[in-house]
Amino acid sequence: MSYYSNIILENYQVRKGKKKKTAFIEFVKGECAKHGYDVNVEKGSFGARNIVVGDPEQAKVVYTAHYDTCAWLPFPNFITPKNIGIYLLYQIFLTLAMIALAFGGAVLADQLFTPLVESWLGTESANVGGAIFFWSFEIIFFVILGLIMAGPANKHTANDNTSGVVTLLELMKSMPTEHKNDAAYIFFDFEESGLIGSSSYASKHKDFKKNGLVINFDCVSDGDTILFVINKKASHLKKELEKAYMPNDMFNVEIAYEKVIYPSDQASFVNGVGVASLKKSKRGILYMDRIHTGKDTIFEEKNIAYLVERSIEFTKLVSEK
Fold it and tell me: For burial by CB atoms within 10 Å, which of 26, 60, 217, 238 has the most?
């Protein structure tokens, strides 16, 4: 394993909560000092801390990845970027499952507590049962939602998003001296809570939001198809991406900007490109599974090596424009 793969997986795989995030931030600061990079920890909404390496405003390209880790879930965050219908059906199924759990819990609470409250009040009333059902449903639903958003940390984050973090660190270390100032790097916080870190950065840097070129690595170590998702307004980047990242004998590389969805930090920027590795089903459907669960343990070094090598080529290409 590479130096960064080993040290991040061993010591910084969980980056959730102030203490663990601070430890990771200090590690990144130390590594930046070794390689001669300036680093700034910029605060955002809800206490987000984005780690900014280099000068994004002057760089030709900014490589990003979110460093926060998700809460553990008993089910995967199943994503099918090029089959939006399947993705939406899965999200609807999860929402309905949450509603069903809350409904069942509220019915049970009604049956258990309504007789007790009516006995205490010395009267029977439909309002009592209705109130207990309503508030039980609300509480259970938002407790479930809270556990999904901010529950106990998932201890296995090889793909989501230790892979993206390692890619940035390896790219920083490997960037040729003559192109060092052509690239900058941002480790975003609170992606798992709704792109809070990247949207905060975009709101503070409006010119960068509009004009900055962002390549965002999120879940790039599990799958042999590398998908580049381009925001629709940045479709002009397709040729440059093809030139730098294709062809490739090791991976199937696809670049798309229509009828595709990948919910990650590139969405906060006009010229945003999301990069993910996916598996392909027998029917040709690209999908991502395992993330947000204890099965997120797949870390293919070859994926990171490919992205680092070709991203250096992409940096050279855009620096010549």
Answer: 217
